């Protein structure tokens, strides 16, 4: 069972449909007991960092997420959900994140490039990551975002190039926490393979 955290932050249904297409049993919930019983958990999200953290706090989900991670349950943040994994975000104002992986989230700096970074871009794999295995050499995924992670190299599983910018695309803590800046649920067969890999992780 894959638990999808419901905290009023968009793209939940598209993630659920992609997982159901793959034959994965899913539950969308903000009930701590339901989420803590899940075999794997996904934090999706579209919107702003501060509003999302406000909602997670409002629903009492921050300590629940920490408990999920501490018990070794595979955890995947998608798009905004990935950004919330880090210690701080600077969208509009400084805001504390979940602090699951060291780093911060700042506005993309890519002179002469259109912001937001929107559309398909090629993954450049940097470090071994279980949910990026069995990827074709030319793997393109779909992005929509204006802010990016600034993360220590050892957590950077894959990146994309956008003009002069090297944008983290997938982060991994080396244990059970993963983050995808792109939308696997909108990234065709490549994205489905990533979700399939995540669904196949053994706790």
Overview of the structural elements:
With 203 residues, the protein is α/β, with parallel strands linked by helices. Helices cover 25% and strands 30% of the residues. It is built from six helices and 14 strands. α1 links the parallel β1 and β2. The mean pLDDT is 95.
Descriptors:
single chain, 203 residues, alpha/beta, eight-stranded mixed β-sheet, four-stranded mixed β-sheet, 6 helices, 14 strands, 25% helix
Helix content: 25-40%
Helix count, DSSP H or I runs of 4 or more residues: 6
Give, in order, the helices and strands: EHEHEHHEHEEEEEEEEEEH
Structural class: alpha/beta
The largest β sheet comes out as: 8 strands, mixed
What is the oligomeric state here? Answer: single chain
Write down the overall mean pLDDT.
95
- Radius of gyration over C-alpha positions, nearest whole angstrom: 15 Å
What is the rounded distance between the termini? 12 Å
Question: Secondary-structure map with pairings?
Answer:
Elements: E1 2-5, H1 12-21, E2 26-29, H2 32-37, E3 40-43, H3 49-58, H4 62-70, E4 75-78, H5 80-83, E5 88-89, E6 95-96, E7 104-107, E8 117-122, E9 124-125, E10 140-145, E11 147-150, E12 156-162, E13 165-172, E14 177-180, H6 188-199
Parallel strand pairs: 1-2, 1-3, 3-4, 4-14, 5-7
Antiparallel strand pairs: 5-6, 7-11, 8-10, 9-12, 12-13, 13-14
Brief digest:
The chain is an alpha/beta fold. The chain has helices at 12-21, 32-37, 49-58, 62-70, 80-83, 188-199, and strands spanning 2-5, 26-29, 40-43, 75-78, 88-89, 95-96, 104-107, 117-122, 124-125, 140-145, 147-150, 156-162, 165-172, 177-180.
């Amino acid at each position: 069972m894959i638990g999808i955290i419901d905290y009023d932050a968009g793209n939940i249904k598209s993630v659920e449909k992609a997982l159901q297409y793959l034959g994965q049993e899913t539950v969308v919930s903000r009930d701590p007991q339901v989420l803590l019983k899940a075999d794997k958990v996904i934090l999706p999200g579209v919107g702003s960092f501060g509003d999302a953290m406000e909602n997670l706090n409002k629903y009492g989900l921050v300590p629940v997420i920490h408990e999920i991670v501490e018990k070794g349950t595979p955890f995947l943040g998608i798009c905004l959900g990935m950004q919330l994994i880090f210690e701080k975000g600077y969208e509009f104002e400084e805001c504390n994140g979940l602090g699951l992986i060291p780093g911060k989230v700042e506005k993309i700096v890519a002179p002469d490039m259109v912001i937001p970074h929107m559309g398909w871009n090629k993954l450049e794999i940097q470090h071994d990551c279980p949910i990026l295995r069995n990827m074709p050499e030319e793997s393109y995924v779909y992005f929509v975002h204006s802010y990016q992670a600034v993360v220590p190299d050892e957590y950077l599983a894959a990146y994309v190039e956008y003009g002069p910018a090297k944008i983290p695309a997938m982060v991994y803590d080396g244990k059970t926490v993963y983050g995808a800046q792109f939308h696997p649920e909108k990234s065709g067969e490549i994205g489905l393979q990533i979700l399939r890999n995540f669904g196949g992780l053994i706790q």
